[in-house]
Amino acid sequence: MKTWTGILFLGVLISLGTHAHAEGTTPERQIETFMRLSGMRPNAVNGQDFFTSKHGREWSCSSCHTADPTVLGKHVKTGKVIQPMAPAANPERFTDAAKTEKWFRRNCGDVLGRECTPEEKADVLTWLASLKK
Protein backbone atom coordinates (compact mmCIF):
# COMPACT_ATOMS: atom_id res chain seq x y z
CA MET A 1 0.00 0.00 0.00
CA LYS A 2 2.83 2.44 0.82
CA THR A 3 4.31 1.93 -2.65
CA TRP A 4 1.07 2.97 -4.36
CA THR A 5 0.77 6.04 -2.15
CA GLY A 6 4.33 7.03 -3.02
CA ILE A 7 3.72 6.52 -6.73
CA LEU A 8 0.52 8.56 -6.56
CA PHE A 9 2.29 11.37 -4.67
CA LEU A 10 5.14 11.37 -7.20
CA GLY A 11 2.61 11.55 -10.03
CA VAL A 12 0.95 14.58 -8.44
CA LEU A 13 4.32 16.31 -8.02
CA ILE A 14 5.30 15.61 -11.62
CA SER A 15 1.91 16.86 -12.78
CA LEU A 16 2.25 20.07 -10.77
CA GLY A 17 5.77 20.66 -12.02
CA THR A 18 4.89 19.92 -15.65
CA HIS A 19 1.77 22.08 -15.51
CA ALA A 20 3.63 25.01 -13.95
CA HIS A 21 6.52 24.63 -16.40
CA ALA A 22 4.26 24.42 -19.45
CA GLU A 23 2.42 27.63 -18.58
CA GLY A 24 5.29 29.46 -16.92
CA THR A 25 4.94 30.30 -13.29
CA THR A 26 5.46 32.99 -10.73
CA PRO A 27 7.12 33.01 -7.32
CA GLU A 28 3.64 33.32 -5.78
CA ARG A 29 2.36 30.22 -7.58
CA GLN A 30 5.37 28.25 -6.44
CA ILE A 31 4.88 29.44 -2.86
CA GLU A 32 1.25 28.28 -3.06
CA THR A 33 2.34 24.87 -4.33
CA PHE A 34 4.91 24.42 -1.56
CA MET A 35 2.38 25.66 0.99
CA ARG A 36 -0.17 23.06 -0.17
CA LEU A 37 2.47 20.31 -0.04
CA SER A 38 3.61 21.29 3.46
CA GLY A 39 0.20 22.12 4.91
CA MET A 40 1.80 25.15 6.59
CA ARG A 41 1.56 28.89 6.02
CA PRO A 42 4.93 30.26 4.86
CA ASN A 43 6.90 32.49 7.20
CA ALA A 44 9.27 35.10 5.73
CA VAL A 45 11.18 35.50 9.01
CA ASN A 46 11.88 31.76 9.06
CA GLY A 47 12.89 31.99 5.40
CA GLN A 48 15.45 34.72 6.11
CA ASP A 49 16.83 32.80 9.07
CA PHE A 50 17.04 29.61 6.99
CA PHE A 51 18.79 31.45 4.13
CA THR A 52 21.43 33.12 6.30
CA SER A 53 22.16 30.28 8.76
CA LYS A 54 24.46 27.30 8.47
CA HIS A 55 22.75 23.97 8.95
CA GLY A 56 25.55 21.78 10.23
CA ARG A 57 27.53 22.08 7.00
CA GLU A 58 30.19 24.46 5.79
CA TRP A 59 27.90 26.80 3.82
CA SER A 60 24.65 28.68 4.16
CA CYS A 61 22.57 29.90 1.21
CA SER A 62 24.03 33.36 1.82
CA SER A 63 27.57 32.03 1.42
CA CYS A 64 27.11 32.32 -2.34
CA HIS A 65 23.94 34.40 -2.70
CA THR A 66 24.95 37.00 -0.03
CA ALA A 67 22.83 38.08 2.92
CA ASP A 68 21.27 40.64 0.55
CA PRO A 69 19.70 38.60 -2.27
CA THR A 70 18.90 41.79 -4.23
CA VAL A 71 22.55 42.00 -5.34
CA LEU A 72 24.86 39.75 -7.35
CA GLY A 73 26.29 36.73 -5.58
CA LYS A 74 29.40 34.71 -6.25
CA HIS A 75 29.95 30.96 -5.90
CA VAL A 76 32.46 30.45 -3.09
CA LYS A 77 34.40 27.70 -4.90
CA THR A 78 34.15 28.56 -8.59
CA GLY A 79 33.89 32.35 -8.34
CA LYS A 80 31.04 32.27 -10.87
CA VAL A 81 28.76 35.30 -10.64
CA ILE A 82 25.20 34.47 -9.56
CA GLN A 83 22.33 36.75 -10.52
CA PRO A 84 20.25 38.18 -7.64
CA MET A 85 17.85 35.74 -5.98
CA ALA A 86 15.13 38.26 -5.15
CA PRO A 87 12.49 38.50 -7.88
CA ALA A 88 12.38 42.29 -7.41
CA ALA A 89 16.00 42.48 -8.57
CA ASN A 90 15.79 39.63 -11.08
CA PRO A 91 12.34 39.22 -12.66
CA GLU A 92 13.36 35.91 -14.29
CA ARG A 93 13.87 34.30 -10.87
CA PHE A 94 11.33 31.59 -9.97
CA THR A 95 9.44 31.74 -13.27
CA ASP A 96 10.35 28.15 -14.21
CA ALA A 97 9.25 25.48 -11.73
CA ALA A 98 11.67 22.88 -13.12
CA LYS A 99 14.63 25.24 -12.63
CA THR A 100 13.45 26.11 -9.14
CA GLU A 101 13.33 22.42 -8.20
CA LYS A 102 16.69 21.72 -9.82
CA TRP A 103 18.47 24.46 -7.89
CA PHE A 104 16.70 23.75 -4.59
CA ARG A 105 17.76 20.11 -4.93
CA ARG A 106 21.40 20.99 -5.65
CA ASN A 107 21.78 23.81 -3.17
CA CYS A 108 19.91 22.12 -0.33
CA GLY A 109 22.19 19.14 -0.81
CA ASP A 110 25.25 21.41 -0.43
CA VAL A 111 23.88 23.41 2.49
CA LEU A 112 21.86 20.77 4.38
CA GLY A 113 23.10 17.46 3.10
CA ARG A 114 19.48 16.63 2.16
CA GLU A 115 16.61 17.99 0.12
CA CYS A 116 14.71 20.97 1.48
CA THR A 117 11.18 20.36 2.69
CA PRO A 118 8.23 22.08 0.99
CA GLU A 119 7.87 24.21 4.15
CA GLU A 120 11.50 25.37 3.94
CA LYS A 121 11.09 26.17 0.25
CA ALA A 122 7.89 28.14 0.90
CA ASP A 123 9.54 30.10 3.73
CA VAL A 124 12.61 31.00 1.66
CA LEU A 125 10.59 31.95 -1.41
CA THR A 126 8.22 34.03 0.71
CA TRP A 127 11.14 35.97 2.16
CA LEU A 128 12.83 36.41 -1.23
CA ALA A 129 9.55 37.58 -2.80
CA SER A 130 9.10 40.14 -0.01
CA LEU A 131 12.40 41.90 -0.71
CA LYS A 132 12.49 45.20 -2.57
CA LYS A 133 15.32 46.27 -4.85
Name the descriptors.
single chain, 133 residues, mainly alpha, Cytochrome Bc1 Complex, Chain D, domain 2, two-stranded antiparallel ribbon, 2 strands
What does this structure look like?
The protein has six helices and two strands; from the N terminus they run ααααββαα. With about 130 residues, it is mainly alpha-helical. It has a single domain, classed as Cytochrome Bc1 Complex, Chain D, domain 2, CATH 1.10.760. The chain has a two-stranded antiparallel ribbon. β1 and β2 form a beta hairpin. α2 packs antiparallel against α6 and α3 crosses α6. The N and C termini lie far apart (about 50 Å).
Chart the SSEs and their pairings:
Blueprint (H helix, E strand, L loop, with lengths): L1 H22 L3 H12 L5 H9 L9 H4 L7 E2 L6 E2 L14 H16 L5 H13 L3
Antiparallel strand pairs: 1-2
Helix pairs in contact: 2-6, 3-6
Helix content: 55-70%
CATH superfamily: Cytochrome c-like domain
Instruction: Assign the CATH class.
Output: Mainly Alpha
Strand order of the largest sheet: 1-2
Strand content: under 5%
- Kindly report the average pLDDT value: 87
Report the C-alpha radius of gyration, rounded: 15 Å
The CATH topology name reads Cytochrome Bc1 Complex, Chain D, domain 2
Strand segment tally = 2
Distance between the termini: 49 Å
Number of domains: 1
**What is the approximate shape?**
globular
What can be said about this structure in brief?
With 133 residues, the protein is mainly α. The protein has helices spanning 2-23, 27-38, 44-52, 62-65, 97-112, 118-130, and strands at 73-74, 81-82. It has six helices and two strands, in the order ααααββαα.
